[in-house]
Amino acid sequence: MKIYEMKIAPNPRRVRIFMAEKGLLDQAEFVELDLQKGENLTPEFAEKNPMKKVPVLELDDGTCISETMAICRYFEELHPQPALLGRDPLEKAQVEQWLRWIEFYFFMPTGMCFQHTSGYFDDRMKCIPEWGEECRKGVEKFFHLLNKHLEGREYIVGDGFSAADINALCTIDFNKVNRVGIKEDQVHLKAWYDRISQRESIRA
C-alpha cells in the first residue's frame, strides 16, 4: 500500500503517528507530494482523491481512501490493538466527541488562520486576512479549553493515549506557523504536551 502525503503537513502527520502507534509504518510506501508546487492538483492525483488533498491511502488493489480519520479508522478496524479510537462504547463515544471538537473548533480554524494570513496559497485562493485573524482568536480559546480540561488528567480521554491526543498535539505543533502557542499560565496543557511529546511515535 501507498500513502500520498506531504510529511510536514499536519494531516499526514496525524496518520503517521497513528500508524506508528500500531507498528504499521514499515508496511506502507510513503509518496511525498509538494503542495506548494501543486503536485496534488494534477489530473492523476485527482483520480485518487477528487478533493485533491493529502493524505491518501492507496491499497494494493488500487482502492483509495481519503480523509485522515477515515484512513485511521481503516487501520483501527484491521489492527484493533492498541485501541486508539476507544476501548468500550462509552470511551469510543468520548473519543469521537473530542475528535469532532478538535476538528471543528481547533484544527479547522488553525488551517483557516494559516491559509488566510500566511500568503502560502495566494496563487490559488482568495485570502481574507480579517477572517484569518478571527480564526486565530478561536484557536486561542481552544488552547484555554484544553488547559482547563487537562487539569488532573494524563490524557484527553480516559486513562489511555488515543487519537484525540494525536490530533490535539499535531494541531498545537502546526500553530507555530500562526505564532500561537501554549501560554505560561496554561500549566496543565503544557504538562500534557511535554508527556505526549516524549512518545516515540510523535517523531515518526
Number of domains: 2
> How many strand units?
4
What's the main sheet like? 4 strands, mixed
CATH architecture of the largest domain: Up-down Bundle
Indicate the structural class. alpha+beta
Rg (CA only)? 17 Å
Average pLDDT reading? 96
Helical stretch tally: 7
Strand order of the largest sheet: 2-1-3-4
Which consecutive residue ranges, at least 5 long each, have pLDDT under 50?
none
Q: Name the helix and strand elements from N-terminus to C-terminus, one letter apiece.
A: EHEHEEHHHHH
Instruction: Classify the helix fraction into a percent range.
Output: 40-55%
Q: Specify the overall morphology.
A: globular
Q: Give the strand content.
A: 5-15%
As for the CATH topology of the largest domain, it is Glutathione S-transferase Yfyf (Class Pi), Chain A, domain 2
Give the CA-CA distance, first to last residue: 18 Å
CATH class wording of the largest domain = Mainly Alpha
Explain how this protein is built:
- The protein folds into 2 domains: 2-78, Glutaredoxin; 89-203, Glutathione S-transferase Yfyf (Class Pi), Chain A, domain 2, CATH 1.20.1050.
- Strand 1, helix 1 and strand 2 form a beta-alpha-beta unit.
- It has helices spanning 10-22, 43-48, 68-78, 89-117, 129-149, 163-174, 187-197; strands at residues 2-5, 29-32, 56-58, 64-66.
- Helix 1 (10-22) runs antiparallel to helix 6 and helix 4 runs parallel beside helix 6 (163-174).
- The longest helix has 29 residues, at 89-117.
- Helix content is 50%, strand content 7%.
- It is α+β, with helices and mostly antiparallel strands and 204 residues long.
- The two termini are 18 Å apart.
